Amino acid sequence: MASKPTGAGARTSRPKSSGGRPNFRDRAVVIRTYDFGEADRIIVLLTHHHGLVRAVAKGVRRAKSRFGSRLQHFVDLDVQFYEGRNLHTISQADTVGYYGAHIIDDYERYTAACAALEAAEKLALDTDPYFYEALVAAFRDFQHEPPTRVLDRFFLQAMAHSGWAPSLFDCAQCGTPGPHHAFHPAIGGAACHECRPPGAAEVDPETLHHLWLLAHGHPSTPTPVQEAEGHRLAIAHLQWHIERKVTALAVMDQ
Question: What are the start and end residues of every segment in region (Disordered) (predicted)?
Answer without folding.
Answer: 1-23
